[in-house]
Amino acid sequence: MRALWRLSLFINFLVCLSTSGQSTDTKPVRASSTVASASALSDFEFQSEGLKNLASHTNAPSLKKVLTVDKARDFTSQIARVFASKAVGVLHLSPRDPQYALLLEELLAAPLSISGKFSKEGLDTFQIVAELPEKDASLWIEKLSSSIKNGKGKVDAIPNSSFSKIDQEKGKSFSFGFTNQQLVLDFGDASGDPKNRLPSKSQKTPMASLGTNLFHLRLSGELARPLGLKAKEVEFWVSPRGENLRTLGKIVPEKPISSGIQDFVVPEIIRDPLLSFFAVQKVDELFRLPTYMTEFGLPLHMNQVFGWSDGGLPFQSFLLTELAGSRAFLQSLGPKATNILGPKISQAGFGTLSFTNDSLVVKGTPFVVPTLEPMEVKGRTYLFANLFPFAKTTNAFPRELLQELDPAKKLLYYDWEISESRISHWQVLNSLSPIFRLDQPSTSQNGPRTYIPNYAQLRWLPLLEGNLGNTVTEISLKSPDELAFVRNSKIGFTGMEIMALSQWLANNDPVKELPSMPMPVTTPAK
């Protein structure tokens, strides 16, 4: 959800600007004991049709195309490598054996189901069930056993069972075997038979469990809080729909959403041409906002927030929220913010912060001029955040977008973007994100942190151009205790989510591939 992340940046920018009079060594707020106890039984479930099936699927043509281009294998291999490095740490296996990544890549290609549960001590149980022919499964088990033994692990047969296991600490074991035409990997109680932990519905194969869907994902407890959403459970189903993918989801909020869904009042200054647009209300009920926002007098109840990017010039992105007394708010905040945050911004290598004409401006930043300023439109007062000086146009707001904000939908959140045009924008804007996260360390011995995608990403990301098109995401109020999620897209992700995945892979990849970029070949003039 690209716009959710952008809203988070905006909120953090406001928070940072409000820390006047506080210690400059601020620390992230930790979860409360109430939240910690609620996460004691977090669990997850994921089913996939498998990359091999998806790559030969007659449905979902855009997804098939990006999975079958030349460089896609490098990218999916990288995903397997990262997850393998995480798995061997959890299971206390040897992390140096590259065989684990190759084995995991084989599993990702097959229809599979992954489920697990956490306790207060950490990962309690998990299972991977993959549809593999018995011959392939037997070879897979043989490779895994050999790899464990090479790592000096001891593989034992489980009495009266077709499974083998390697004991772990704290009474746990990692078991693997073939049953019911499925390869099963199990982590759990060392004294029990892993077959007894198979949920009844997994007696069906992963493909049968999916039905007409390509993917299914359910997260609850602590794992249901991605991107700051106030949710105790989220569940998504992805299915093909013509040229697109359709994602249907359910979000269970931590607390019932209060009544009073309002019609969106789009500020007149938002006009064509647009590359993206989002609108959100009930912000403090949907998002996990920092607790210290109240302490510093920031607008906790930002009822309607709008964000958009301009199609006329690259990287032009804007955020707007209605706030009575926005000018007075900035007048009280500005001088103190420059004293507290100015040195931090300079130290981070992102220019200088100044307060002039009731506006906070960061100057000297490459490409952009981050600004927080008051704005009045048709008698309404707003707090306006932008990365470029705003230039008004005479165009109207797109009628088709206005129609999408139909009050009958009970929308809490709406987001539209041309995804392929946003990836390159996010590559630049992501490198500037420390400006908006000054409550966290933003410097290192080598200077400001920047994002450099690894080699697999450099080769794969450009191939997405022309294959992403429009992505539309909606979150609506089904009942106070349940929100409905709908997304229509080419491959299931927004531009920001693709970039977030790329960044996560780059930061976690145990094998860094950062070759020098080749110089262009030029032909001497004749």
Task: Considering the chains and any ligands shown, give keywords for the structure.
526 residues, alpha+beta, 20-stranded antiparallel beta sheet, two-stranded antiparallel sheet, elongated, disordered N terminus, disordered C terminus
What can you tell me about this protein's structure?
- This protein is of the alpha+beta class.
- Helices cover 30% and strands 28% of the residues.
- A hairpin with a 6-residue loop joins strand 12 (304-310) and strand 13.
- Mean pLDDT is 79; it is low at 1-41, 438-453 and 513-526.
- Main sheet overview: 20 strands, antiparallel
Give the structural class: alpha+beta
Shape annotation: elongated
Query: What is the end-to-end distance?
Result: 52 Å
The average pLDDT value, as a whole number, equals 79
What are the segments in which pLDDT stays under 50 over at least 5 consecutive residues? 1-41, 438-453, 513-526
Question: How much helix, percentage-wise, in residues?
Answer: 25-40%
- Computed Rg: 25 Å
Supply the number of helical segments: 15
Chain-wise SSE layout:
Elements (H helix, E strand, L loop, with lengths): L1 H16 L15 H6 L4 E6 L2 H5 L5 H8 L3 H19 L8 H11 L2 E8 L2 E9 L3 H17 L5 E2 L6 E4 L4 E8 L2 E8 L16 H5 L4 E6 L10 E11 L2 E10 L20 E8 L1 H4 L5 H4 L8 E7 L6 E6 L3 H22 L4 E5 L2 E5 L7 E7 L2 E7 L12 H6 L6 E8 H13 L11 E2 L2 E2 L6 H6 L9 E10 L2 E8 L5 H14 L18
Antiparallel strand pairs: 1-2, 1-8, 2-3, 3-7, 4-5, 5-6, 6-7, 8-9, 9-10, 10-22, 11-12, 11-18, 12-13, 13-17, 14-15, 15-16, 16-17, 18-21, 19-20, 21-22
Helix pairs in contact: 5-6, 13-15
